[in-house]
Amino acid sequence: MMFAAALMLLQAASAAPNPLGTGDALLNTCTSPVREVQGLCTAYILGIGDGADLQRAMTDVFGGKPFCVYQMGPGVPAAPMREVVVKYLQDHPASRSEPSNRLVLFAYAEAFPCPKVSDQQPKSQK
């Protein structure tokens, strides 16, 4: 019930289609003292990560140039992922007016960088 109330309050407080659409809005949500509001932040950033994973999977299935935006190991809990995004937003205040979905990907890319091309080659070819 509290979660639904927090969601309705968040939606009512914003005239934008996406109440978490900017880095400022996302940071405010992620650092809220209300646990349920922090849950909205966590769900949002997990969804962006899932979308990026889906895009990579579609490239594998339908062909295309492989790409890597970030490489997060399996089983990373949600709380550290939220902390990575909060730290990125706090460390980059000038970018907080940008779309939050991009900023989440930038945060992941900084915290979980892709291996260098030379690191991806089989050891026998190095």
Quick recap of the structure?
This protein is mainly alpha-helical.
Task: Name a few traits of the molecule.
single chain; 126 residues; mainly alpha; 10k-s Protein, Hypothetical Protein A, Chain A; 6 helices; 0% strand; disordered C terminus
Element order, helices and strands? HHHHHH
End-to-end C-alpha gap: 57 Å
CATH architecture classification: Orthogonal Bundle
Give the class-level CATH name: Mainly Alpha
In words, what does this structure look like?
By secondary structure, this protein is mainly alpha-helical. The chain has one domain (about 20-115): 10k-s Protein, Hypothetical Protein A, Chain A, CATH 1.10.890.40. The chain is about 60% helix and about 0% strand. It contains 6 helices and no strands. It has helices at about 1-10, 25-30, 35-60, 80-90, 100-110, 115-120. Helix 3 crosses helix 4 (about 80-90) and helix 4 (about 80-90) crosses helix 5 (about 100-110). The longest helix has 28 residues, at about 35-60. The protein starts with a helix and ends in a 6-residue tail after the last helix. Residues about 1-5 and about 120-125 have low confidence and may be disordered.
